[in-house]
TrEMBL record:
Keywords annotated in UniProt: Hydrolase, Magnesium, Metal-binding
Protein name (record): YqeG family HAD IIIA-type phosphatase
Domain of life: Bacteria
Pfam families hit by this protein: Hydrolase_like (PF13242)
Molecular function GO terms recorded: metal ion binding; phosphatidylglycerophosphatase activity
CDD domains found in the cross-reference section: HAD_BsYqeG-like (cd16416)
Organism of origin: Halolactibacillus halophilus
InterPro entries: HAD-like_hydrolase, HAD-like_sf, HAD-SF_hydro_IIIA, HAD_sf, PGPP1/Gep4
């Protein structure tokens, strides 16, 4: 059961995920979470660095869709200036939003990776749906009220994964 929470890859931040690294794995599409993955959960707009990351993906023909459990207003405000598709109120870790995003991309499941900062929603959901997954360290150590409970369970799971030698968590405080 624990393996359902294990990401295929683990990075410090989204910027470690480059078009070149994705193409080397034959990845042509990205389903990414928004809050604490792309920008801080309380940051409404894309930073210049995130805009450039999206641009680099587009220039390299890698499709990117934002799939978030947040409400429409939040997700639409963020994605509209980037001209990217999105799914709000995704109900992750349920599989539906992942499959809907895949269908819109018109790619094979093996050509798409799910990226997120939460094991309980992004990684568990992506794994359950059969995608490759990449866990990023959350941008902020604080969370919205709805996420705080998940983080406690997540820390427990990460500790179990580490004890088994399956992951070395980069998000630990030194």
């Amino acid at each position: 059961m624990l393996k359902k929470f294990l990401p295929d890859q683990h990075v410090t931040d989204i910027f470690e995920i480059t078009p070149e690294s994705l193409k080397a794995k034959n990845i042509k599409g990205v389903i990414t979470d928004l809050d604490n993955t792309l920008v801080a959960w309380n940051e409404p707009d894309a930073t210049e660095a995130i805009r450039e990351w999206f641009n680099q993906m587009a220039v390299n023909d890698i499709k990117v869709s934002v799939v978030s459990n947040n409400d429409r207003k939040r997700v639409k405000h963020f994605t509209t200036p980037l001209n990217r598709p999105y799914i709000h109120r995704a109900n992750k870790p349920l599989k539906g939003a992942f499959y809907k995003s895949l269908k819109e991309m018109q790619l094979k499941k093996s050509e798409v990776v799910v990226i997120g900062d939460q094991i309980m929603t992004d990684i568990f959901g992506g794994n359950r749906a059969g995608f490759n997954t990449i866990l990023v360290v959350p941008i902020l150590q604080t969370d919205d009220k709805a996420t705080k409970f998940n983080r406690k369970i997540e820390r427990y799971i990460l500790n179990k994964l580490e004890k088994r030698g399956w992951i070395e968590w980069k998000g630990k405080k030194n």
